Amino acid sequence: MSLVSTAALWLMLVGAAQAFLATPLNYSDPDVANILCPDQMSGPTRDQKWITREGIRRRIRQFFLDYPPPNEPSFNVPTDASLTELYHAYYGEAASATRFIKAVNTIAKANINADSSDTFRFDKDIQGDAESFAGMQDKLGKRYPRMLTAINLNDAFPAARELLGLSLHTIQKFYAHSTWIELGNTGILEDFGLPGFSFDDIAEPTEDVCTPCASPDGECQSNVISGAGLSSGYFVYNAGPNTGSLTPKPNTGGKCSHGGVLDQTKDEPAEGGINKDTSSPCFSPHYYLHEEAAELAVQATDHYLNVILDAVAPMKFRHLFDLYNSSALSITIDTTGSMGGEIDSVKWQVGEIVANSAPEVYVLAPFNDAETGPVTKTSDPDVFMDAVNALYTYSGSAEEMFWTGLSDALANTPDYSDIFSFTDNGGSDGDLMEGMIALAVQKHCKVTIIYSGSLKQGYISDIEDYHRLVDSTGGLFIPSGKFDVNDITAIMGEGVQSSVVDITILKELSGKTNVDIPIDNSIFDFEVRIAGDVSSAIFTDITGTEYDLMDSTGLNSTAGVEVIVHTPSLKAIRWTNPRYGTWNLQTDSSSTYSLAVNGNSTLSWLGDFSILDPSPPHPHYRPVVGNPITNTYYYLEISLVGYLESKVVDVNRIQYVDRTGVEISEIEYSGDIDDTFYIRVEPLPETQFYIKIWGHVQSGNEFSRLMSVLISPVQTTVDVIATSSDICGLPGDTKTGDFLITNHGLSADFEIFGTDSLGFLTGVTPTSVWIENNSSATVTATFYYPTNATEGDVSTVTVTAKSLVQTTSVNSATTYACVLAEVTDIDPPICVSVDAVNCTGYTINAVCNDKNWTTTAILQDTQSGLFGVSANPSAGISDIVNFTPGTTNEVTVTYESTCCTTQVDIIGTDQQGNVGKCAIDMGVLGGLIYDLEAESVGLTWVNLKWKITAYNVEMHLYSLLINNDLTLQFKCNDLSCTYNVTMLEPCSHQEFELTPHFYVNGDDKAGAAAFADDYTLDTEPTSPTNGVQVDEGNTTVNLSWDAPASAKCIFKYKVCYSPIDFNETNGLCEQTTSTEYTMQGLEPCLEYEVQVTSLSPSGLASPPLVFNVQTSDAMPGEPRNVTLQDVTEESLFVWWQDPIERKQCVLGYQIGHFPILSLRKPSVDGWYHEELFELDPCTNYSVTVSALSKTGIEGPTSMVKTITDESENPEMDNLGKISSMIIYEDMLYWDTVLCIGPFLVKFAVKFGFGELFFHVLSTNLTLNSPSYHSVSVIKKDDYGRLSSAYIPVNILNIIPGEPKNLRITSITKACMSYEYDAPASNPQCSLEHEVDVVNIDAPHRAKARTSDPFASGTECGLDGCTNYKFKVRSSIPVF
């Protein structure tokens, strides 16, 4: 059955729960419920993922206590602090725990893989079944030195995490699958899994260890024979083709079964079972021991990690868990000759970055056309700068080994880091591309390419491939010609920060873009980056305040805004103290660009796809390897990093969005949230997408986080079959390992590529393989380890399969190849303590500082040699003599301390990871307080609890200093004590310093103090008072208020405001710690209601202080739609509507010169109107309407014109004729008692050219025409009556203008037709035209004539095949 069809059976599973399986499960799913019987569960249950995380949590807490932050020796953290709370307590609230959680999850994922991989899930030596104790120990013992050499010799922490997770799986399973607990053991088997360990008293092959249960199903009590040897259950189930690999239960009748509904041996003698995997009797017959088994598994995990800590020392232990605050500065750079100028710039700028930041790791990976390296990886900035300054250019070909250089960087760069690649050309090693993109995505490393060449294509890998790389990883492609590295220095410097989260990423944009950006309360600051040329970019905050991102000068002068980079092709601007809420970004460009918004925040997330695997031996969520499959139902595993500290209240949806931000699909979610939980998602689309999660924080603001890797669903999977035992070898060895390629798409040939970071991979066979739909094929990778290979070297191996039919169906799998040690050394170094230490009488907390001690220890390892020397506690080492890594000589260690240090381990670690110690143990220091913490809190009290080590003197009392002020004294003679501190202030931070006092030799002696702190609970705060408007502007108002008389419970103030009786703008709320606030983005001329609420730390709110404020007056806009209606001879009505702009500023309107201030409410459907009367008939009027503000500011006017009507039925004797007709210069004027126009003006033209007529509305006309002998003006009134006037006139001739646009419209053998336009000047004077037709071939006028003033004509009688020129001109008659 294919992955797609199988996945379709699992649609019902939603939510999450926990069981001592591989992962948490949802018990309501039928496939799970039938196996686990959740209704029978007796209590909480634990899965191996939880056990792994809990064991790590306990060890990291103790590690932080043993190695406190610098300058904070009294560091303490509650015993129940979560992983992220531990991290933030140690590194600060602004530090991001994402990389740390990713390391923890990687270890847990490797643990889970033991139940997912066919290589491990059926292996009794991995699962702890079938009495395979020797096999379990053998594999654990061999894996241990590989893990330590990967850490100590190669800093190969990703490989070490995978080995660690697999080992923890077996160690934890021991307590659930064996009879260790049933035989009466209450502690862990400390040396189990370490080299040299062997089991004592295990059951013989024929020894009876179990008796039959009352029923083979369900609960089984007392079925383990007391005094029998150690045993584990046999487990056989339907494993398909792998069933034969399971060990059958012997037929002796006395062996134990694993038991439960999946176990086929439960019905074989002895019936029943012993597993303690869950708290459900139908799955775990010994369910009642589940809690004890889980606790021992946690303790064993904690202990195993502590052994590793001793073996690798604190610094490498930190790196194993990515426990550091900053990131890496990782650079790959092209060193061919054309990059000379860039290299010089990079040298200087990298020096600036190193001088002004503190990366945890520095990585430099040079490459050119012939080779790569040497790679520099160091934590020493001086070593790094020496390597950078030593760079020089080589002459070379056009193409470079870009992808090999990136491979070097990825192999040495921690997860969740930025890698910056400098080049000016394409890559010649494009066969590595797919694997490197997959590896970068897996490591969540953002790759940014600074490309200084021309944008060209056609190489083995070219610009499009570079774009794909940066898009897939969330980086940037910065084309910059021969770039100025100064412009990107700041961005490179930011790459060493570890707390950056992605809010949105948009790629391949063009034209206009409008995107909302939610800025939630967990964000300290955020940054907008635009890569590419844009013509406009306006960023608007929640108040409506706009920031022009194109205006660097304005941005630089704006408080709270920092311009990081501002060039035509790259802009990066940071807001250092942002307002919380939804911002808006609008951009425009005629070219392609991208934008990204990221921020420093306590809240981030990790996401991985998983599939529910309900099959035996243990149902679980199986993590997806490589790219997920299209059209498949998955469960998205969400690790919500920092959700407690960020006060997240819900996650309500998941979004798939494409490169441009367009939503592909959305999955709603209403379930619970935790550190880790699962959401069933929709079938994956066939297109690439980003994943965004959305939810809310306590303030009510929305948060959004984007996973920056571009998800590329495919139809091919690649699985690693090979184990480290298969592919790891000694120098000189050749090893092979298999990979399984599965095709869920069209039948096709597949190309197979392989690469590894250290060159041990010699090839993958076959290199091409035909795979049918829903079928698989196995390919084999071959590794050769040179004789000079360094022990402990670890190479990252990536195998990629690509369909030649569906070319986007590409997938990869990653594993690790390692060089084993030549010599098998299972013996620890020898340590001899030369000096006896005696603190008799001083091992009490009160007097231990009164005596010092010194000891000398001799360490030696004569086999593989000493690799490391350390001590715990480390502070007492005063001298180490004769130590160099690998020495087989004696090494002398001097350790000094006071008698307050009674237990010291001086530790030597050899090359194989074996640990030898000199243990100085004078007993536990007596009277030492530990685990002091607040057990519970109330409004005015804190109940403290603590433990104290046993002491042999009389306890006098405890003194408790509260807030460095009040000291209380009380007694408690128990080793576990509590004390309720009362009469505290509510809602306040309480600090406690607890000091024990003892009677020593009759004197009162104070011991070392312990410290704790917590917050009392909130009570509802009281309201602020005296809210006032300090000053105002058109769009701002400054407020202030007084804090309540008792401000103890006030954490912040919440300021909410909204306009009164104005629905065109929304209100908003913000929080502030100040008693002053500026309202921004307001409308002028409006009254706002303001509510100021006191907030307690937990969010309790006081009744609001309510008061009103007013923005200042402003000029209203122009009235709209002014029209005139019902015009008579003496009145008219003016109609208009409010302005669009600042209509709220209008107090009234002014018409003409007469203000009308009473009109504020529309009388008819939003229209105002006013009647104007006592007007003159037949009169032109211009009517203006303008708005007036409350303080008399007049806005712009809107004007319309009209003429009043004639007087109705005038007297006939007044009609008469049109009178007073005169000519003055070139104007004709006349008068009439009738209203203006229309008039008919008739000109009688001399020389018999007829009459010309003009219709005019006014009582004048310009005379710019030839001579006329008379003019008549005629008027007809509304009653049909005529009036006229006549006047003789003689006007001088005026020369007309030149005709325009002469053109030939048709041509025949003997005729040509033409057209032209009237002159632009004095066209009325052009009474005739002359048309000349000239024969060009015979230079004489062929024809000339005078025509009437028409604009077209036809000339015939022309000669064929002859060139003619046409001319036309205007003329007037010749007198």
TrEMBL record:
Keywords associated with the record: Glycoprotein, Secreted, Signal
Subcellular location(s) per record: Secreted
Major subcellular location class: secreted
Record's signal peptide: 1-19
Gene Ontology cellular-component terms listed: extracellular region; protein-containing complex
PROSITE patterns named in the record: FN3
SMART domains linked: FN3
Keyword presence, Cytoplasm: no
Entry protein name: Fibronectin type-III domain-containing protein
Positions of the Fibronectin type-III domain: 1020-1114, 1118-1208
Keyword Glycoprotein: yes
Protein source organism: Meganyctiphanes norvegica (Northern krill)
Any single Pfam family the record assigns to this protein: VWA7_N
Segments forming a coiled coil: none
Database matches in InterPro entries: FN3_dom, FN3_sf, GBD_Hemicentin/VWA7, HMCN1-like_VWA, Ig-like_fold, Ig_VWA7, VWA7, VWA7_N
Domain of life: Eukaryota
Residue stretches spanning the membrane: none
CDD domains, per the entry: FN3
